[in-house]
Design goal:
mainly alpha; 2 domains; two-stranded antiparallel sheet; two-stranded antiparallel ribbon; elongated
């Protein structure tokens, strides 16, 4: 389970405290890694939380949303987190995150999304993607042996066991599902935005302030020790 900002803060500050425990642990001022460690730890837990949110929402299918999220190297002033442009997930992650309004406003399950289906005519590509999803997840459901405490995705796959390999039936089902999605929209999961709020809100700013303050204290102790 992803750690909270409070847990990370305690661990990181404890780490910085060890830097001044003995002369052997003193390092040069420019070599202190407290801020870099803090950024790295928070980013790592953020990515873990994104993956946990996806699992909880039952939105892991091919796995791209969970596995393709990456981070750039910390360059001393900034770091980038998200889906690289070449990833297929970059094209649709925010639809899963914020949801999509249905074409039929009166039946839409999402009223707040910045995205909206413009008509109720599903494209062939959409129908094909849904047909593949049914076939793929029905297969997972057949192989699932767990009986209790099923995740949202496992329960969904169990329901697909009635889907057969008959092409005509699968085609009709994919078309009907496509129509329903375009009319009613896609439910918001907030899997990405909720993780951003948890790890990069006001508590993150407080953590960074404390880490920087602690590093300054350690630097002063080092300078004093080195001057003796």
């Amino acid at each position: 389970m992803a750690k909270s900002i409070s847990q990370l803060q305690n661990e990181i500050l404890a780490f910085l405290d060890t830097l001044g425990e003995s002369k052997e642990l003193f390092t040069r001022v420019q070599d202190l890694k407290g801020l870099e460690k803090a950024i790295g730890e928070v980013v790592g837990e953020f990515i873990k939380q994104v993956q946990e949110n996806l699992e909880k929402a039952g939105k892991i299918d091919t796995g791209a949303l969970a596995t393709d999220i990456t981070q750039s190297e910390w360059d001393g002033s900034s770091i980038s987190i998200g889906y690289p442009a070449e990833s297929a997930a970059a094209k649709y992650y925010d639809f899963v995150n914020k949801g999509v309004k249905g074409y039929d406003e009166s039946k839409s399950i999402n009223r707040d999304s910045p995205y909206r289906f413009q008509n109720d005519r599903p494209s062939f590509a959409m129908q094909l993607a849904i047909a593949k999803w049914y076939r793929r997840n029905a297969g997972f459901g057949r192989r699932e042996t767990q009986k209790k405490n099923l995740s949202a995705l496992q329960r969904k796959r169990k329901k697909l066991l009635k889907v057969t390999n008959e092409a005509d039936r699968l085609k009709s089902l994919a078309y009907a599902t496509s129509i329903n999605i375009k009319r009613r929209g896609l439910k918001k999961t907030g899997y990405f935005d909720n993780a951003v709020q948890k790890y990069f809100g006001s508590n993150f700013n407080k953590l960074i302030a404390k880490v920087v303050g602690k590093e300054i204290q350690v630097n002063i102790r080092q300078d004093g020790n080195n001057n003796k």
